[in-house]
Amino acid sequence: MSRHTITVDVNGETQTREVDARTLLVHFIREDLSLTGTHIGCDTTSCGACTVLLDGRAVKSCTVFAVQADDRSVETIEALAADGTLHPLQDGFWEKHGLQCGYCTPGMIMSAKHLLEKNPDPTEDEIRQGLGGNLCRCTGYNKIVEAVQYAAEKMLTERPSGATSAERPSGATATEEVEA
Amino acid sequence: MIPGEFDYHSPTSLADAVALLDRFGDDAKLLAGGQSLIPAMRFRLAAPETLIDLNRLTDLAYVREQDGHLAIGALTRESALEESDLVQRRYSMLADAAAVIADPLVRNLATVGGNIAHADPANDHPAVMLAYGASVIARGPDGERAIGIDDFFTDLFETSLEVNEILTEIRIPAPSGTAGGAYVKVERKVGDYAVSGVAAQLTMDGDRIRQIRIGLTNVNPVPMRAADAEAALAGQLPSEETLEAAGQAAAAECEPSPDLRGSEEYKRDLTRVLVKRAVAKAVSRARRAQS
Q1: Domain ranges of chain B
Q2: Do A119 and A143 belong to one domain?
Q3: Nearest partner of B161 among B171, B146, B172, judged by Cα
C-alpha cells in the first residue's frame, strides 16, 4: 500500500494531507476536508452528483484518485457563495425551482458553471447536452434548464461592459460547431 | 466502493513511464483518463498491484496535422477533440464519435489513447480508427514502433501491445478531397455504451464509392471491420439496393451478444440500418466536400 502527501488548492485554500493511493477524490473532499456539499450518488461514474472542477474542468470526483489532484486546483460547490452572496447559478436554481430533493444540485451547478465558462450564451440544446453527465430523478430537467438560462442571462448582464463572448477562454469553441 | 490497495507511481517523463512498466510488467496498469479503469477497480474487476499514472506526461496531449496525417497524442482528452477546430472541420467521423462518447463529464478526463488501448469492443474509437485505417505508435524500452490498426485488436480487451509498451500516439491519414466519413451510434441514454455503432470512411470516384472502410461498435467480441459490407460497396453507386446489401452483409458478419440493450436479432438488424445511415451520411459529406 502506498501513502502520499498531497497539496491541493481547494476553493482557493492550500490543503496538505496524507492519503492512501486508493482514496478517491470525492472521499478526500468529504471526509478529509469535511466539505460535504459534494455528494456521492451512484458511485459508478453515472450520476454526476459528485461533480467538481479539477483545474477548471468539470469531472466526476468519484472517478479520480485524490493523489491525482496533487499540485492541482479543485473547486467545489462551497466556493460559489463564499462571500455570502449566492452565485447566479444558485440564484437561478432558487428562482426557477431547479430542484426538488436537491441531491443532484451541487453537481448540476458545478457542471453548469463549467458549461457557462466555455459557452456564456448557450442554447437550450447546448445546456441539455452540456448537462448530459448529470442525472436528476425529480425535476424532469426542464426547471434545471430554465435555472441555467436564468444564470446565463444574469451573468451576461452583470459582465463588465465591453466584455463579449469573444473573450472565451482559449481552446474553447462553441458546441454549435459540432454537427448533429 | 473503494478499490483495493495498490502502489502508485506518477512519472514525469515517458522514458520513466516505460521503465516503470518494464519493471512491473503484468502487475501494473497504466492510468490515463481512468474513466474505465477506476470503475473497474472499484468493482474489484481489476486489482492491479501497481498503477502508473500517465497524467503528468502533458506533452502527450496534442492534436495536429503533420506529414500527411492527423497525430493525436495518447493523453488527449475526448473533450479536446470536441474543442478542436481542426477535428471539427476535417475529421467529421472523429468529431461525430467525440460528441457521443460517454457523457461530457467523462469526456473531460477520458483519453483517446485509453479508449483504444483498453480494446473494449463497446468503446467508440476502435471502430472509428478501424474505419480510418489509422495506426498507433507504441513506445517500449527498445524504442518506438508503428502498429497498423488492423493488427492492433487481438481479442476482448487484448491488443498487440507488448507488456512493456505504451501507446503514445494515434495517426489518422489526412483525408483527400473526395473523402467523407460518419459515425452513427444508437445508445439507450447518454453515457451508455452503444447498442450498435457504425463508422464509415470512404472516398468517391465521381458518383461511385471508390474505396470504403467500415468499423462496428459493440456487436462483436473484438472490435471489427465489416469486410463483407465494404466489399458490397466498393466501386458501386450508393443506391438504396447497394446500401441495403451492405447493411445485410454487416448484420450477418458481426456476432453481437444479447444483453440488456437487446437481443442478438435486434442488434443485427440495428447494425443493418446503421450501416445504411452511416454510409449515406459519409457519401453526402464527401459530395459536399467536393462541391
Answers
A1: 7-53, 58-173, 179-286
A2: yes
A3: B146
Query: Which residue range(s) make up the domain with A154?
Result: 88-168
Chain A residue numbers touching B8 (CB-CB < 8 A): 2, 4, 21, 65, 67
Q: What is the DSSP letter of B149?
A: G
Q: Where do the H-state alpha helices sit in B193-226?
A: none
Report the alpha-carbon angle B72-B78-B81, nearest 5. 60
ipTM for the complex shown:
0.94
User: Would you call A51 an interface residue with chain B, using a CB distance cutoff of 8 Å?
Assistant: yes
For each of chain A's 180 residues, which pLDDT tens digit applies? 699 999 999 999 999 999 999 999 999 999 999 999 999 999 889 999 999 999 999 999 999 999 999 999 999 999 999 789 999 999 999 999 999 999 999 999 999 999 999 999 999 999 999 999 999 999 999 999 999 999 999 999 987 654 454 444 444 444 333 333
CATH topology of domain B58-173: 3.30.465
Whole-angstrom Cα distance, residue B36 to residue B26?
18
State the sign of the Cα–Cα–Cα–Cα dihedral B264, B266, B267, B273.
positive
Q: Do B105 and A68 touch (CB under 8 A)?
A: no
Nearest to B108 among A27, A46, A58 (CB): A58
